[in-house]
Design goal:
heterotrimer; A: about 325 residues; alpha/beta; eight-stranded mixed sheet; four-stranded antiparallel sheet; 11 helices; about 30% helix; about 25% strand; globular; C: about 280 residues; mainly alpha
């Protein structure tokens, strides 16, 4: 099947106080219709910047993005509207994602007007998306203001707004991290459901592998702006090939006793990383680092049909 | 005997819409040398309880009843200056964001020395040695004492604020969501530091968190809070494996498990009740899938197994309810 | 909106400031009923023009050199004060908000050009600018309003710009982009309503400034001598040496009225600091 979203050589560099900071380096990515991809990594690994570039909210410094066969890398203004209708975003902080002065009705109507949805369809569509996110009966919610809603309800409205233009792709950036534990599962289930019944493709951004595993069949691990490992989520968690992935998996706490008490296979902190340049940027924190890791930058390459890793040792050290 | 025994503690907030009982009759025992997790969702009163014990409630908050017996004395009845003497010396506080504990314009050495010399009464040389020792204890290079907080990463700042909290050798440390703002790997490293300190120094710790997994990893005991009250308490393994309160049962199925099977998560529909005018009976009743007529009266927090307390009318049926609670359909709104 | 206005009035500074404005508005609206005489009517005592009458029950603030009732002039003066003040304030707010919005949201060269103009304008001295302008064109309220609008917008523009810079980072602004809103739509439909309270505040300060400017211009003889305004009253009093004659009932009331208006603007801005910058008040 043809890819819905394809990115090649995505790069983002920022200039701050005369220094050049590489936030995202050479990211290639491909997403089939209906597929869910997770991007994991710690803060500052470039996962959010990558997602923002894919949605054309941030201009890539280099690289190309194709959506549904069209190159959207440099579309501007009105030319971007069809893409906007097809690719939507679910925000991390539901308390800030809706205009505080807009009623729910207005927040849902505005995208439809922008996307050119005929007016007679508006009421129908609002009813449909609100039912989908379980804000029922829809009429009871349309005229409320954001400040009258709880975090979980707000996130449902945000999801409803994302769905109102019949998108084919949803990007969710830490969609539940600001929510109370008891309502997180509800939002995750809605996201899963929307994908199953609408055939949406999805990209989830999170630092939590457990969450990613719940919603994504494929995962990309990023470290300091580069992809270090990619593969089916279950395989990647069961048998991580990159030492950094291994540390991430080991660090995820589990709500059961006597789990994961093993020593973390990682040293130091993110701030110890060597500057970008020659060599593996994980080497100073890697328990298996050797001379080669300083001399040579490991490329991201396939180790099996569906897995890629950027390590000289391809996971043989595990 | 417990190091800390909270007996019927009540804390009220004055709000524009009335008086909210954020903590409404809490009973909690913290044994010496153990880590007790205090879990619940936002607004359940867990942070308020931590702050009330520490005497750092915001201005609108006030302790309106109950006792806090710490090292054999009720500290609520003591004068403000005596309370201060005990707090910060025998009890220490680690806030969620380390920047709240650290002074951004002072080198860490200056901040450590100030606490050690002025509050701890140490001489300059001895205080300097102690500061270095504390830094090593939390896994920081003593050289970094000459740095400012902004030169530290988030994890290092949290380590520094732990070192600062330990300066006066407290017997109890209250940590309010100490790892919430951190990435997973750093989170794990900080939890490891806390555990190591607890076993090396024999500290008791109250770890306030919303995350059951953090409790499972780092705590010996756990108290589950809901709407200003404790609904279940006991040893972590006991509570997680054999939860007796439906809320706890829900929480244990509310998170995805990185290694578990492909089970659907269960959301707990609805929201906690208002603390200004809470329901007369069980406060969880409105969200509970197992609600019965008896729930209109408030259930007491009683021991139903050795050292395992729960406040639920149907606690004798806990085993069959647990099986039901694992099914998402149970939690679907009718 | 209404609720924040009420909490605004709970501040004593703001309440006093707003009350002053409220009184002026009421007086201006009811001027023809409140004023005991036609402001330009020349009063007579017997056959003589009633010059320099002291305070009496008939003329509460006495009369002018040409026998006109001071109180009536003062009351009618509120109309021109409000007309000048409101028009100028509206112009300041419109220009300042628009430029602040553009430079804050668009950034880049727009921001640089606006800042450059603001710097130049802030360097111009107010009174000389207005006087030169009045001398070159036709003196009158038009010049006053134009000068206030031209010279006062940078203050408004700067605070609006700062506010827009922080609003621009909010997730709901990004949400507007991702749901297909055009840049003008984001600026005027999403962001503008959020900065309007701040703009209104700066406008209320500009009212006081504009009235002071009008008074200064009139006093220096660049006003419109046919209107009745507090500045013209002061100018006439001065020209007739009211001060040395001790006719304080003639010049003190318009002076006090001008001061009250400027003070009201100041009090309102002072009082709303807490509302607009809550952190400032906490710290």
């Amino acid at each position: 099947m043809n890819a819905l979203l394809e990115a090649s050589g995505l790069q983002k560099t920022f200039h701050s106080r005369g220094r050049v900071v590489v936030a995202v380096q050479q990211v290639d990515l491909s997403l089939k219709p209906g597929e869910a991809l997770g991007i994991v990594g710690e803060s500052g690994c470039g996962k959010t910047t990558t997602a923002r570039m894919l949605l054309r909210l941030e201009e890539p410094s280099a690289g190309h993005i194709r959506f549904d066969g069209t190159d959207i890398t440099s579309l501007q203004g009105r030319a971007l509207i069809p893409f906007r209708a097809r690719a939507q975003l679910v925000f991390q902080n539901p308390f800030d994602a809706l205009n505080p002065r807009f009623s729910i009705r207005r927040s849902l109507t505005e995208p439809m007007v922008n996307f050119g949805v005929p007016k007679q369809e508006h009421a129908d569509r609002m009813e449909r998306v609100l039912n989908r996110v379980r804000l029922t009966p829809p009429d009871a919610w349309l005229d409320r203001m954001p400040h009258q809603l709880s975090g979980g309800q707000l996130q449902r409205v945000v999801l409803a707004r994302a769905l109102i233009g019949d998108p084919r792709l949803i990007v969710a950036d830490e969609p539940v991290s600001m929510l109370d534990v008891s309502v997180r599962a509800g939002i995750l289930n809605l996201l899963r459901e929307a994908r199953d019944s609408l055939g949406l493709a999805a990209i989830y951004i999170s630092h939590d592998l457990a969450l990613i595993r719940y919603v994504c069949e494929r995962t990309m691990v990023m470290y300091l702006g580069s992809v270090v490992e990619e593969g089916p989520t279950d395989a990647l968690i069961a048998k991580p090939a990159h030492p950094y992935t291994r540390a991430l998996v080991a660090a995820v706490p589990v709500a059961r006793v006597d789990q994961n008490r093993a020593q973390l296979p990682i040293r130091g902190s993110l701030s110890d990383a060597p500057p970008s340049g020659l060599g593996c940027r994980f080497r100073d924190r890697c328990p298996h680092a050797q001379q080669r890791c300083t001399d040579e930058t490991p490329a991201l390459r396939a180790i099996s049909a569906d897995r890629k890793v950027a390590c000289h040792f391809d996971g043989v050290l595990s | 005997m417990s190091l800390l025994s909270v007996q019927g503690l009540k804390v009220a907030y004055t709000t524009a819409r009335g008086r909210a009982m954020a903590v409404d009759g809490i009973f909690l025992d913290v044994p010496a040398g153990s880590i007790t997790g205090l879990v619940g969702e936002s607004g359940c009163g867990k942070s308020t309880l931590g702050r009330a014990l520490m005497g750092v409630l915001p201005n609108v908050g006030k302790i309106t009843g109950g006792k806090v017996v710490f090292e054999g004395r009720d500290i609520v009845s003591l004068s403000a200056s005596e309370q201060r003497k005990i707090r910060w010396r025998r009890m220490a506080f680690i806030p969620q964001t380390a920047m709240n504990a650290l002074d951004p314009v002072q080198r860490l050495r200056v901040q450590m020395l100030e606490v050690l010399m002025e509050r701890g009464g140490l001489g300059r040389a001895e205080a300097g040695r102690r500061a270095e020792e504390l830094f090593r204890l939390v896994g920081l290079d003593p050289v970094r004492l000459s740095d400012y907080p902004h030169q530290f990463s988030g994890g290092m700042r949290q380590r520094a604020s732990i070192a600062l909290a330990l300066a006066l050798s407290p017997s109890l440390v209250i940590a309010d969501e100490p790892v919430t703002a951190l990435d997973v790997i750093v989170q794990r490293q900080i939890l490891d530091v806390l555990r190591a300190l607890q076993s090396r120094l024999g500290l008791a710790m109250i770890l306030v968190t919303h995350d059951m997994a953090v409790v499972a990893y780092a705590c010996d005991r756990v108290a589950v809070m809901y709407a200003g009250q404790i609904v279940e308490a006991g040893p972590v393994a006991e509570v997680l494996e054999r939860p007796m309160h439906p809320y706890t049962m829900g929480l244990t199925h509310a998170f995805p498990d990185v290694h578990g099977g492909d089970m659907a998560l269960v959301p707990i529909e609805g929201a906690p009740p208002s603390l200004i005018d809470p329901p007369k009976g069980c406060r969880f009743a409105a969200r509970c899938p197992f609600v019965v007529d008896r729930c209109a009266a408030p259930p007491a927090l009683l021991a139903h197994a050795p050292d395992h307390l729960a406040a639920c009318w149907r606690v004798t049926e806990a085993e069959s309810l647990r099986a039901l609670a694992a099914r998402p359909a149970t939690w679907m709104p009718a | 909106m209404w609720r924040s206005f009420l909490s605004f009035l709970r501040d004593p500074f703001a309440a006093v400031g707003a009350s002053i404005y409220a009184v002026i508005v009421v007086v201006a609206l009811l001027a023809d009923r409140l004023a005991p005489y036609e402001p330009k009517a020349i009063l007579k005592v017997g056959a003589r023009v009633a010059r320099y009458l002291p305070i009496t029950s008939a003329n509460w603030l006495g009369t002018t050199a040409s026998g006109r009732d001071v109180l009536s002039q003062l009351i009618y003066g509120t109309r021109s004060a409000l007309a000048v003040g409101l028009t100028a304030a509206l112009a300041v707010v419109a220009i300042g908000t628009l430029l602040g919005l553009l430079s804050g949201y668009l950034g880049g060269w727009v921001d640089r050009v606006v800042s450059w103009f603001a710097d130049i304008v802030l360097g111009l001295p107010f009174l000389p600018f207005m006087l030169v302008l009045a001398a070159l064109t036709q003196p009158g309220t038009g010049v006053v309003i134009f000068s206030v609008a031209t010279l006062l917008w940078p203050n408004t523009a700067r605070v609006i710009r700062a506010q827009v810079l922080s609003l621009r980072e909010r997730a709901w602004v990004e949400a507007a982009r991702v749901t297909g809103c055009s840049t003008p739509r984001i600026m005027f439909v999403h962001i503008l309503p959020q900065v309007l309270p701040l703009a209104a505040l700066y406008g209320s300060v500009a009212i006081g400034w504009a009235i002071l400017a009008e008074a200064s211009a009139s006093f220096l003889g660049f006003g419109d001598p046919n209107t009745i305004s507090w500045g013209v009253m002061l100018q006439e009093a001065y020209a007739n040496q009211a001060l040395s004659r001790g006719a304080w009932t003639w010049f003190a009331p318009p002076g006090a009225a001008i001061m009250a208006m400027v003070l009201a603007g100041f009090l309102i801005s002072r009082g709303s600091e807490k509302l607009l910058f809550p952190k400032l008040a906490d710290g």
